[in-house]
Amino acid sequence: MKSDIDRLMQELNLDAFIVAGGEEFNAVRYYLTNGAHITHGTVFKVRGKDALLVCSGMELEEAQKSGLRVATTAELGFHEVLKDADGNAQKATALFWAQVLEKEGLSEGRVGLYGTWQVNLTIALYDMLFEETDQYEYVAETTPTLFDKAMLTKDADEIERLKSVAERTNQVMQEAWDYIAGLKPDGDYLLNDDGEKVTIGDIKMLVRRELMARGLEDTGMIFAQGRDAGFPHSRGEADMPLQIGKAIVFDLFPREMGGGYHHDMTRTWCIGYAPREVQAVYDTVMEAFDISVETYGLNKPTHLMQEAVLDYFESKGHPTGRTDPRAMEGYVHSLGHGVGINIHERPSISHTRRDDIFEVGNAVTIEPGLYYPERGMGVRVEDFFIIGDNGELISITPFRKDLVIPIEGVSQK
Amino acid sequence: MKSDIDRLMQELNLDAFIVAGGEEFNAVRYYLTNGAHITHGTVFKVRGKDALLVCSGMELEEAQKSGLRVATTAELGFHEVLKDADGNAQKATALFWAQVLEKEGLSEGRVGLYGTWQVNLTIALYDMLFEETDQYEYVAETTPTLFDKAMLTKDADEIERLKSVAERTNQVMQEAWDYIAGLKPDGDYLLNDDGEKVTIGDIKMLVRRELMARGLEDTGMIFAQGRDAGFPHSRGEADMPLQIGKAIVFDLFPREMGGGYHHDMTRTWCIGYAPREVQAVYDTVMEAFDISVETYGLNKPTHLMQEAVLDYFESKGHPTGRTDPRAMEGYVHSLGHGVGINIHERPSISHTRRDDIFEVGNAVTIEPGLYYPERGMGVRVEDFFIIGDNGELISITPFRKDLVIPIEGVSQK
Hints:
2 copies of one chain form a homodimer. By secondary structure, the first copy, chain A, is α+β, with helices and mostly antiparallel strands. Chain A folds into 2 domains: about 150 residues, Creatine Amidinohydrolase, Chain A, domain 1, CATH 3.40.350.10; about 250 residues, Creatine Amidinohydrolase (Alpha-Beta Complex), CATH 3.90.230.10. Chain A has 11 helices and 21 strands. Chain A is elongated and about 75 Å long. At the A-B interface, helix 3, strand 5, helix 6 and helix 9 of A face helix 3, strand 5, helix 6 and helix 9 of B. Strand 5 of chain A pairs antiparallel with strand 5 of chain B.
């Protein structure tokens, strides 16, 4: 969590870090600035000191919402440096960063670089940092970084926000269920009050509206039916009408409006009735879900949970990403991942990442699935869990796990 | 425009480029992949050949919506490379990229790197590219890049999308106007049908709903009143009730749902009546707006337009960013910017960027403003223009430029 940052800097032997970024959503900057809505802004932190947010004067008012110390580029002398650098923006930025570090009390040492930025600008600036400010050694960490490690555990404020987003997301899924459950069947399709076939686009619009009414925003939900559901990341076709008896994978992972903490949950639904084949695959996935939860243990390596699921699916004859990394059918993804400001964080529950363990403060999904696009189906079930103060695995996705949404006038075939 | 890419590559002496990226919104990748919703995906393009999109098998279905050639990391041999690289992801990526370039027919040459990615991962990968694949020279362009130049002019499809977003955004601004115009005054405040004071948060919610109903999403609108309006990038406080007679800066810059083309427009409103001081500043800003449009000429350097506005504001005694780059009052930003997939693109209309000219196909804002936070006010007016085939400057922001939203029962003081 955030309070680990100084300790993690010490472990990494970092004297300071700089978080750069432009207009893109920048998870590390969001984390450090408490979500202040700044387009351009750079965070400087020298170990043991509070972080400093540097922005343009235009963004001062928003920057102050970060709760950090704030200074403008103008008052720290960027314009003079730019002149000295003959207008070369990369050179000026390199010299300016060194000037800020110096003012913050660091005249040499190891400086970690983080944030999200354009690839080309990052490299051009890195070259310039190397050339112009060799009093510092710049460190480019790979995964898991300082921030991956800090974000691995959530503090009490973050847990509260995650729980609040969870509650609202579960409400929205209920709204979608209730809407579908109230539709009128017409052959293979479902009609709304105006007698029109209801489409996936209609459901997505309803979901977006309900999210918004609760201060959340969609970040690309999956509502994929039939063959599309057989591709884990297919989002679903807006124009496709809902069909009775087809498996629908509904993966909802909204976040707080304007960027912030996410929820992540998936249900598989069959409207009206479930074909026997879908029900069988669903039962297998639910068994894998239960095995996952049973395999959980505090301080246990996460890959053991994935391996328990791989063992189970393979014992049932399903292809997996372990038997064939190229597999496009069967169980083709990892079992889960941390969630926070990023939709994918550590810990990973994967057989290819073997260094994560379950810790108090983790916020993590468990989401087994089976995919058979050529058989026109896919199934995934996902809850979001928090590991509580006593090491208990607590689902914050209470939504029902029924496969079938009953429709009046439709019965099991 | 996109059809310029091969020519621009030639001018830059680039034999190929690679567009990298992770889960962040990645404008260059969006541009090349026609907005396909892929989380991890890399675009490779050798000059003279069609681009290739490489993604994981999970994202194949979505990737195919790009219209590009698509291949999966698995079929191109990433897993084998990862094994050879002892699981070092950066080394494996560097070797894999070289392998893809080789398969695409390029065994040596200059390769531009673009996209949006984490700063640390970019640098770590860059180091590895340098060490492991020195048959290629990697090029990190600074602004304006190949894509800044390509995006500088929009093709017919892009213009159609921009016009459609413009029309919908103007409709939403009208909805906000109409809603406010129908409120009941109560002292300095305005009441809704339930007799509650209407807040900025209420207006923002209405606007988000109306955007969504039209397939658009907010990207952080500004609705800032009184002193807040005096800070160009202050977003406005959700809890603040609307007040009669205060200047409100309403800057609306939504985009197509899920990422895509933007509109960008600003109006300044006073509800009920305009204080004389606000009216005077508004008239000055409108005069600057008219001067901007009159100064326009095809193939003319854009900075001349900004300078005409600076001359005018300074002649009226307003501080500007030219007289003092640290200025926090008066005219403190540039006059305009290109808009497309990014909210800020080239051309810039600024006195500090002197190399842009107005060209056919530009899509650009003109947005003079004056800011006096200590006097509790700010004013900005912004239209979005396209430069037509015959060089004409065409506003696609027809929305009225009235300062005052009349309220029944409130008259000019």
